[in-house]
Design goal:
Blueprint (H helix, E strand, L loop, with lengths): L28 H15 L3 E2 L6 E6 L2 E8 L2 E6 L2 H12 L12 E2 L2 E6 L2 E5 L1 H10 L28 H17 L7 H8 L7 H16 L3 E6 L6 E8 L10 E8 L2 E9 L7 H25 L8 E5 L2 H6 L13 H12 L3 E5 L16 H10 L2 E3 L1
Parallel strand pairs: 9-12, 12-13
Antiparallel strand pairs: 1-2, 2-3, 3-4, 5-6, 6-7, 7-8, 8-14, 9-10, 10-11
Helix pairs in contact: 3-4, 4-5, 7-9
């Protein structure tokens, strides 16, 4: 780099500075760090995952090592303790490492070991968000979103510039909580839709989410060991649920065996002309996620069932995946149709009907009552420590 202004060496103005370390302060620093670490790991026999660039894996004989990298924070999971020690020794020759022992805390996510698995939670992070919002001692709510009203961009008086900044800050922080709390995915998705022009009604909804989190701070996502290798998903959509643009909200939950590993609650990009169309778009999104999960499992040589199972509570969308006849109301989803239909025809995807009352993904598309919220949390393997 050129010499900084005011710090030039006399009579050597044409000289440049050579950087020994490019970790912090430069825009290209993360890329330089990742490149150097990646080269080192590949020399040691690791392979970068094509499905997730932050994941590296090593397989040789009975030894299997997974390494997940986030800038300079690294998680190592290995089938051999001796192999882990040897890996750390090799990395110490090039990098200054600090071994923190067993995994307990990573990027704000707490990992607690229980009898039959682990529980991922963010109690400390949620506590910090509540303190920042001044709601650490607030009254507890048993639902994150009211079922009796639908938020609209026209509802309520606009917030001041300062309050709007605070709104965006709190909502942005809450987005990170959804990494271990899928039960608030839909409420957070809803309040995120008003970041451009928040009102007092929207801020009230955010405070309700905070009050719900205050009462469920110790809740976390449980992951257990199980012999089941079935990759399955539940897909649902709330047709024309948004009062502003009448777009639908689609959601899905993907399980590996009994464990929830991926979920989504998102407003669809286009307006659907029928409930079947909205449900089929949600089916296509869930199918894409299933393909990604299966690709990742194949890369890691993790055994899983070849045929993924997808549950849908819309009979029209379920039949349409197996019936090659187009109807007038479904001609606008031809791309999604062919995408899903191809997987079904190749017998790589099994789409089945499930009653709405048993639909696990229902909470990703609409606000639920108190009893439904508790049932939703139980279905997603959310437990209280």
């Amino acid at each position: 780099m050129i010499q900084p202004p005011g710090y030039e060496v006399k009579d050597k103005y044409h000289y440049v500075c050579k950087l020994d370390k490019a970790l912090y302060g430069l825009k290209q620093a993360p890329r330089a760090w990742y490149s150097r670490l990646s080269v080192k790991l590949q020399r040691l026999g690791f392979r970068p995952s094509k499905a997730d660039t932050s994941l590296f894996f090593y397989r040789k004989g009975r030894i299997t090592i997974f390494m997940l990298v986030y800038v300079d924070d690294i998680i190592v999971a290995s089938s051999s303790q001796d192999a882990t020690k040897a890996l750390l020794e090799d990395l110490r020759r090039d990098f200054a490492l600090k071994d923190l022992g067993d995994l307990h805390y990573f990027l704000g996510i707490e990992v607690k070991r229980v009898k039959d698995g682990i529980v991922l939670s963010q109690e400390k992070y949620v506590s910090d968000v509540l303190k920042r919002a001044g709601m650490m001692n607030c009254k507890v709510s048993n639902m994150p979103l009211s079922t009796s009203e639908k938020l609209s961009k026209e509802e309520g008086e606009p917030l001041s510039a300062e309050d709007s900044t605070n709104y965006r800050s709190v909502v942005g922080a809450l987005q990170y909580v959804t990494l271990t709390r899928p039960d608030i995915s839909f409420p957070i998705n809803k309040v995120c839709q008003f970041l451009h022009a928040p009102t007092f009604a929207h801020w009230t909804a955010v405070k309700r989410i905070l009050r719900y989190l205050r009462g469920t701070m110790s809740t976390g996502l449980k992951v257990t060991r199980n012999k089941s290798t079935l990759v399955s998903a539940f897909s649902d959509a709330d047709w024309a649920g948004c009062p502003d643009d009448r777009r639908s909200t689609g959601g899905f939950a993907v399980f590996f065996g009994p464990n929830l590993i991926s979920w989504s609650a998102r407003k669809q990009a286009t307006v659907s002309r029928s409930s079947t169309e909205a449900e089929y778009k949600a089916l296509a999104n869930a199918t894409a996620e299933l393909i990604w999960v299966q690709t990742l499992l194949n890369e890691l040589h993790v055994n899983h069932s070849l045929v993924a199972r997808l549950w849908c509570d819309n009979i029209g969308a379920t039949y349409l995946s197996a019936n090659p006849v187009f109807h007038a109301r479904t001609k606008y989803i031809e791309v999604d149709y062919h995408f899903v239909r191809e997987r079904v025809a190749k017998k790589l995807l099994d789409i089945r009907f499930i009653p709405t009352n048993d639909q696990v993904a229902d909470g990703f598309t609409k606000a639920l009552s108190w009893r439904k919220v508790e049932e939703f949390k139980n279905n997603l393997n959310l437990v209280k420590l």
